[in-house]
Amino acid sequence: MSKQFLRSITSVGANVREAVNAQSRPDFIHKLSIAQKECDESLYWLELLKETNYISEIEFESIYQQNNEVLKII
């Protein structure tokens, strides 16, 4: 699960970077929508990590809040 979280969370940044270099407005929107989906998927993996006690409640709250803020920005 932690590897899945790592993959999805790093994909957010990669897709935002691709959006910055988009070739058109539709391409920009498409790349950001992928980043949004990956960010939401990261929240899912994070919730599973907490429910399986892989991370503590304090770690979860900190990371979840930051991830949720990024999702809102996107």
TrEMBL record:
Signal peptide start-end: none
One Pfam family matching this protein: 23S_rRNA_IVP
The protein's name: Four helix bundle protein
Organism: Flavobacterium fryxellicola
Phylogenetic placement of the source organism: Bacteria, Pseudomonadati, Bacteroidota, Flavobacteriia, Flavobacteriales
